[in-house]
Automatic annotation (TrEMBL):
Keywords: Acyltransferase, Transferase. Its EC number is 2.3.1.-. Residues 4-141 form the N-acetyltransferase domain. Signal peptide: none annotated. This is GNAT family N-acetyltransferase. InterPro entries: Acyl_CoA_acyltransferase, Bact_Acetyltransf, GNAT_dom. It comes from the Bacteria. It holds the Pfam family Acetyltransf_10. SUPFAM superfamilies: Acyl-CoA N-acyltransferases (Nat).
Amino acid sequence: MSEIHVRIADWQKDNADLRRIREAVFIAEQSVAPELEWDGEDADAVHFLAFERDYAIGTARLLTDGHIGRVSVLKDWRGLRVGDRLLQAAIAEAERRGLKRQMLTAQVHATAFYERHGFKIVSSEFLEAGIPHVDMLRESD
């Protein structure tokens, strides 16, 4: 496998890649309704794209209040630490912007992944888009 790299994406210029990945992961695989996936927050968010060479394989976004979300990696690239690279990029950008608290809503099966990056569960389990989730928080020094 060649080197994976992550960069900040442009919602307008990179829209096709961002949509292709999120539609494959959330809408096709996890049956999230399109109207829940496309929530109106994207225009103001900082987006990240992970690439293998020049092919986009993963995405994440950071909202202006420090919420990280829409972390998604195409099936064939899972288990290769692509999600780690995306999350690290989002955390670094949040900290660069002075956002000392990063929050996210995690699918329950993925909580250990986020805990490895310093997030702690701060809510009871709840359903979102029919999938069990918890809220998680990370506080920077």
